[in-house]
Structure to design on (253 residues):
C-alpha cells in the first residue's frame, strides 16, 4: 500500500473472469454501512479511458435497497443527503479495496472523478434505473508503465493526536515544500504539459520550474464549480433530492 501509484497505461492483456470476480468480491468485503452501491463493468477496451481493458463504474445504489424495503413493506424515510453520505463512504471503501486487490493480482488502476458530471451519459449508456448514481470510475488492467510514487503530506500535517494543533507557518511550509518539491523532482507537470489556466484577469507568473502541486490544487478549488446547482440538478435527475424531503418513493407515498 505504501507503494501505491495510479496507472494510466495498460498492456493489451485482458484480465480473466476469475481475476475480475476476485477483485469485486474483495471490494464487497470492505466494511459497509448498508452496501448502498453497485458496480458496472465495461470491457470495451477501445472506448474505455486510456484504452483500459476494464472500466468499473462505482455507483451509489438506492434502487436495489428500496426493492428489499418494498419486499419487507417498509418505505424509505431517511433523507437523501444522509443516505448519500453513507453511500459515498460504502462505495469509496469498496472501490479502494478493489484497487488494493487488483494490485495484489498484478493489476494497476486509476480513478476518474469525471463520472459525477457525466452521470446522465453514464445512466443512458448502462440503462441505469432512477436512484442509481455513478459516483466514480476505475480504469484497470495490467500496467504498461511504472511511474514514481507520488508524495503525500508529512504525517505531522495529517495525524493529530489528542488535540487538533494550531498549524504554524513552519509546519504549513514544510507540508507545501514536501508536496511541491516531490512533484518537481519527478518533473510531473512538465511531463504532463499541463497547468490549470488562470481565469479572469489573473496573470500567469508560473513556469514549469515552479508550477507544482499546491499551486495546481489551489487553481482547481479556487476557480472550479462555484455553484452547487449543476451537481444538485444531476442528482435530482437521477431521483436524489438533496435539499428537500422526498415526496414519493417509487410512485407511491
Ligand atoms: C476521486 C478521485 C478522482 C480521480 N480522478 C482522476 C482523473 O480524472 N484523472 C486522473 O488522471 N487521475 C484521477 N485520480 C487519480 C489521482 O490523480 C491520483 O490518485 C493522485 O494524483 C495521487 O497519485 P497516486 O494515486 O499515483 O498516488 C483520481 C483519484 C480519486 C481518488
Amino acid at each position: 500500500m505504501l507503494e501505491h501509484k495510479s496507472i494510466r497505461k495498460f498492456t493489451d492483456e485482458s484480465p480473466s473472469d476469475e481475476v475480475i470476480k476476485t477483485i469485486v468480491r474483495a471490494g464487497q468485503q470492505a466494511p459497509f454501512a448498508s452496501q448502498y452501491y453497485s458496480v458496472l463493468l465495461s470491457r470495451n477496451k477501445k472506448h474505455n479511458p486510456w484504452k483500459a481493458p476494464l472500466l468499473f463504474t462505482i455507483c451509489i445504489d438506492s434502487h436495489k435497497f428500496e426493492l428489499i424495503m418494498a419486499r419487507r413493506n417498509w418505505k424509505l424515510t431517511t433523507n437523501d443527503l444522509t443516505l448519500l453520505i453513507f453511500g459515498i463512504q460504502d462505495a469509496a471503501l469498496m472501490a479502494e479495496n478493489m484497487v488494493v486487490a487488483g494490485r495484489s493480482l498484478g493489476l494497476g488502476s486509476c480513478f476518474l472523478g469525471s463520472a459525477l458530471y457525466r452521470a446522465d451519459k453514464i445512466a443512458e449508456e448502462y440503462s441505469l434505473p432512477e436512484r442509481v448514481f455513478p459516483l466514480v470510475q476505475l480504469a484497470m488492467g495490467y500496467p504498461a508503465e511504472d511511474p514514481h510514487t507520488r508524495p503525500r503530506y508529512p504525517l505531522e500535517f495529517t495525524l493529530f493526536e489528542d488535540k487538533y494543533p494550531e498549524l504554524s507557518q513552519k509546519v504549513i511550509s514544510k507540508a507545501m515544500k514536501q508536496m511541491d518539491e516531490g512533484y518537481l523532482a519527478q518533473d510531473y507537470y512538465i511531463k504532463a504539459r499541463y497547468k490549470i489556466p488562470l481565469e479572469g484577469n489573473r496573470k500567469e507568473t508560473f513556469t514549469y520550474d515552479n508550477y507544482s502541486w499546491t499551486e495546481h490544487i489551489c487553481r482547481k478549488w479556487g476557480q472550479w464549480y462555484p455553484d452547487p446547482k449543476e451537481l444538485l440538478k444531476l442528482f435530482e435527475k437521477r431521483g436524489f433530492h438533496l435539499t428537500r424531503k422526498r415526496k414519493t418513493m417509487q410512485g407511491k407515498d
User: Anything to note?
Assistant: Helices lie at 17-28, 63-71, 80-104, 119-125, 169-185, 188-192, 213-221, 229-237. Residues 196 and 217 are 9 Å apart (CA to CA). The longest strand covers residues 132-141. The two ends are 47 Å apart (CA to CA).
